[in-house]
Amino acid sequence: MLELSQLTKTYGGRTVLSNLSHRFEPGRFVAIMGESGVGKSTLLNLIAGLDVADSGAVIVDGTSMAVLDDDAATRLRRSRMGFIFQAFHVLPHLTLQQNVALPLLLNLANAHESAARAGAMLTAVGLGGRGADFPRQLSGGELQRVAIARALVHKPALLLADEPTGNLDPETAGGILRLLRAEIRANGAGAIMVTHSHAAAAMADEILLLTRDGLEQA
Q1: What is the mean pLDDT of residues 184-213?
Q2: N-term to C-term CA, the chain
Q3: What is the pLDDT of residue 213?
């Protein structure tokens, strides 16, 4: 489902990733760990097509992201991927339910079904009954849970998660990780989670360590 081929990325003359190659097997929940600054978030952005490598390829379902124009890449992300950002990117002018339903509506799903699914996902992340609230009424941890619900709502084939439990207390984090794993398995999806948390990584099927030399088994 996902293959990285000799990815190289530099910023301001500093090489962040160098000739990185790896094949991710479908249906696997993979945690990626590593020191700060080694390029974990950069790797997720390259996989999602939100950033462009200097060389190499990200191949999703047999198609290189590099050959897709902006519209095609957007359609692929919209239909096949879910992304949990560290910065949440929850839209302040939309209610929580509208935020969570957005991926479904962008994929032209029925509005009533989208609202029902969004409500169910808000309940799953512990925010049931808060659908009419706005992001300004939430704490950082609650916003993170909204972002997680939004990333899962359209049952993506590939979930990309950047420190998805970074703002959560241990008990809430455990529940969210169990939800992620359950959704992934129920949908036959794959997931790549960047995390500094050993407890979070332990929930994955496989743990990889990103170093200057590439990805290796932890």
Answers
A1: 93
A2: 22
A3: 85
* The pair of three-digit structure tokens given for residue 75, joined into one six-digit string: 């359609």
- Alpha carbon of residue 14 to chain centroid: 25
Domain chopping of the chain, boundaries: 2-92+155-217
What is the distance between the alpha carbons of residues 42 and 101, in angstroms, rounded to a whole number?
Answer: 27
Which residue, 180, 138, 132, 147, is CA-closest to 31? 180
pLDDT at 67: 87
Strand runs labelled E in the chain: 2-11, 14-24, 29-33, 55-60, 63-64, 81-84, 158-162, 190-194, 206-211, 214-217
In degrees, rounded to 5, the angle at the alpha carbon of residue 207 between the alpha carbons of residues 201 and 166 is: 30
pTM score: 0.92
Up-side HSE of residue 99: CA atoms within 13 Å toward CB? Answer: 27
CA dihedral 83, 97, 201, 185 (to 10 degrees): -90
Q: What is the CATH number of domain 2-92+155-217?
A: 3.40.50.300
Q: What is the pLDDT of residues 113-150, one digit of tens each?
A: 999 999 999 999 999 999 999 999 999 999 999 999 99
